[in-house]
Amino acid sequence: MRDILQTNAAQAVVSFTGLLILTMMGTYVVLRFRDSIEDDETSSDLLTKFRENRHGGYLDEAEYRTIRTDLESKLSEHSLAEPEDVPERT
What we know:
Elements: H1 2-5, H2 8-40, H3 43-55, H4 61-81
């Protein structure tokens, strides 16, 4: 058995398998954290960041309007899909 593992082909297969496993584990961790980060940032937060970028000169007015329109539509879709708890008036 040890003779087989000493060959270049066997070492290449073992190395490739280890690399594949590490890549899969890394991908899993990245996707898991990416999902939690994306959930934390709302459209209104993004709109604020893009507004700051426009004032800083990183975006021109046309780019900002396009982004704002997209984010406002997503924000309104989100607010319609999940209404927030609003206290009722009595």
